[in-house]
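Quick one, T. Sequence first:
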Amino acid sequence: MYIFLSVLAACAWALSGTLMAGFYRKLDVVSASSYRGLALACVMMPMLLFVPIQEFATIPQYWPPIFYGSILVAVGNIVGAYSIRHLPIGIASALSTSFRTMTALAMAVYMLGEVLTGFQFALVGALMVCVILLSLSNKRSDFEGVNASAYFAGVSMTLLVGVVIGWSMTMIAAETKGMNSILLTVVWENTITAILLSTAVYRGLCTGNYFAKIDRQSFFKIALFASPTIVGTMAFSVAVKLGFIGIVSAILSVGSVVSAILAFLLYKEKLTRLQVSFIALCCVAIAGLNLAG
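Structure tokens:
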């Protein structure tokens, strides 16, 4: 069951990220991420009606890991939005997914005592090689607007996204297994939103630039595009209660393929055969980690 939920989470997150790419490229990253979070908060609040009253008393118990995990995710959202502005979605997704998986596996050993076998370590090494080759293969990409400095900045950002998101996922999985999944989803996402909004306000106080202006129709569109995130977060929160975080994170690599396909269909982003091969090899390596787990 947790494998299905992990695949569902991967597809939902990939769908939302790909649909939001247009706004990430149109708006500044802080505004786009803040609007996304605010829209999610509006959509999610009715879900609390399905949470038993007594469950709300557990929030203080689980608040520290949720808060620290939310800070990491907020950083990941902003940095991830930046990377999508400068790299093809499929490449950015493959890079961040690979490093997120490796971070989650390492943190699982440290926090949960999930020991890797020699075969798993070999697959992690193979995955690292695939990631490096994938990033190098994009130097000749015909993706418009990518110059050398933006390319390397985008790659660096995706690596950072993978690390902070992998760290956050492991922290949440390890420390909140006893929390109601719906309540965890709402509190986690709303805490991320509060941090993003605070960042935007702080920027506004310092520079006078608070939020990029958007119309009501655009906000509703952001709410629609961000909605799959709710499904993804819910599925993830249940999956990590049923299975191992390292395996769940590995299965989430399906999102790389989904992102690449959606980017081709929605944004006409072309990937070379070599790049497609490296993405496939990344997924094979992560799938091998799943089977080895």
